[in-house]
Amino acid sequence: MIIFIIIPVHNRKQFTFNCLTALINQTNKNFYIVVIDDGSTDGTSEMIKDHFKDVILLKGDGNLWWSGATNLGVKYALKNNASYIMTLNDDTVPCEDFMENMFHWAQEMPNALLGALALNANTGQPDYGGELLSWKTAGYTKLLNLLKKDEQKGIHPVTHYPGRGLLIPAAVFNKIGFYDEKNFPQAVADDDFAHRAKRAGYNIYCNYDAKLFTYPEESAIIKLRQKKNIKNYYSHLFGLKGGGNLKYFTIYALKNCPPKYILLFLPIGIIRRVLGYPKEWALDYIKGRHLKWKQFIVDFLNK
Predict the structure, then answer these.
(1) CA distance 194 to 180
(2) How far apart are CA 261 and CA 9, in angstroms?
(3) Closest CA to 88 of 186, 16, 175
(4) 126 three-state secondary structure
């Protein structure tokens, strides 16, 4: 079993350092690491050369984005006889038995795609363990809301999985091709890929035994929603990193939604993306005003 871990990076030297440090300290070290530095200017490549001699470093010019950079790494891995490829983000810190538990379930389920259980690095609590998508309602059900605490182990089927810690048999790429960097240069490409793999006959699971720490607040999608203003709302709907990008969502829906549900899934999804941001914005404003009045009353009573 030859595994290549593919990590696209851009100007996040400290996160990259932490991620690579966690990987070289794994209990099972039977894998290769490929980092694609897409035009970093913060010394990321130099840091890798100085501290991680065994890491394979590929370079981009800053225009590859996530999909192009990941595809570059995947192609390198396939040329070097990879049997499995893992896509991993640089703002993750895999637990020391992460790869050991991935190896275990890959041997049990050799033709499946295996995602990892994400733990919030700030709280240590489970943050993401996969979802079940309903095309009919355009709704997502989080597995963590369905599974009891004692059930959060082993593998559980999901409808799709992001590229953050996803182990993929090389045969999947040979059968369905690479990430769609033309239509989805940054966001959505990983979900699109997972749906294509599912349609090609590959099951997808979240491996609750393989854990990694993540920093949700570092996601570009989350950042656009944390600080709400007109500029960020526009980027949310139309920007390259926007989680509600209407163009990407429309293409994603047309490519993947079953035809009998498209007239439900597409408009519902668009409405949620357009109205979800201002709804959160309004609720944040009301909450903020409430807290200010509450603090005012407390201060007044304490005088």
Answers:
(1) 11
(2) 37
(3) 16
(4) strand
